[in-house]
Structures are given as structure tokens and as C-alpha cells.
Design a protein that fits this description.
5-stranded parallel sheet, alpha/beta, Bact_response_regulator, Rossmann fold, single chain, CheY-like_superfamily
């Protein structure tokens, strides 16, 4: 299963992102701050990171810069912000303006990391038709 890390200081948005991405079959971990997100990133194995830009403490730009400097390889990063003009675009693979369309977010995730499950395999709770 593909693991994603979502970082946002808005608990309602974290829950919405988690719910929508889990419904698509992704394993979703969340962090309510940039600092917590960085700790989780260091201790986890994520295929993609979604981060808000404006948060108390470390900003999404700081999170993305840290991830880009890490030795974990190239990890796609989606920036989500009500102020997309403040995004340091060189650190992000995609930038989305709040309010984010969940359909567009899922599409962006799929484009960057692929579907949550391999083609031809059943996803949890779904049987293959013969």
C-alpha cells in the first residue's frame, strides 16, 4: 500500500484529506505542524508529502526544503495554500490553491505516485469480478 504524509495545522482539513485519500486506498499519516511532519518523515517511508504552506512554526516551504535536502531520494511534494503566490515553487512538484478540490487532489496524487493498488488486484473491501 502506498503511504502518504499530510501536514496541515487545520485539524478539519487533515481529517478531510485523510478520509478522501484513504477511500482511494492510500495509507495516510497526518501531522499538525511542520516540525511534527519532519519527525514523521524522518522515521517513516512515504511515497509523497502534502503540506500546507502557512503554519505556526515551520512553514510548508521549510518542510519542502528539508525534504529536498534529505538523503531519502526524490519524494514528490504537493503544496496546498490559500496563498499559492508565496510557495517556493522550486521545492514542489505541484501547488494547489485552497479550497482544494478533493477530486483534483486525488488526481495529482495519482499522477505523482500512481494508484494506491496495482492494476488487476482487488482493493480492500472489493472483490474482483470474474
Amino acid at each position: 500500500m502506498v503511504s502518504l504524509l499530510v501536514i496541515d495545522d487545520d485539524e478539519a482539513l487533515l481529517n478531510l484529506y485523510r478520509l478522501m485519500l484513504k477511500r482511494q486506498g492510500y495509507r495516510v499519516h497526518t501531522a499538525a505542524s511542520g516540525e511534527t511532519g519532519i519527525r514523521m518523515f524522518e522515521n517513516g517511508d512515504y511515497a509523497l508529502v502534502i503540506t500546507d504552506l502557512i503554519m505556526g512554526g515551520m512553514s510548508g516551504n521549510g518542510v519542502a526544503e528539508y525534504i529536498r535536502r534529505s538523503e531519502k531520494g526524490v519524494i514528490p511534494i504537493i503544496g496546498v495554500s490559500g496563498t499559492p503566490w508565496q510557495v517556493d515553487a522550486r521545492h514542489f512538484d505541484a501547488v494547489m490553491e485552497k479550497p482544494v478540490s478533493m477530486k483534483d487532489l486525488v488526481t495529482s496524487v495519482r499522477l505523482l505516485v500512481g494508484p494506491a493498488f496495482e492494476e488487476g488486484r482487488a482493493s480492500p473491501g472489493r472483490a474482483l469480478r470474474g
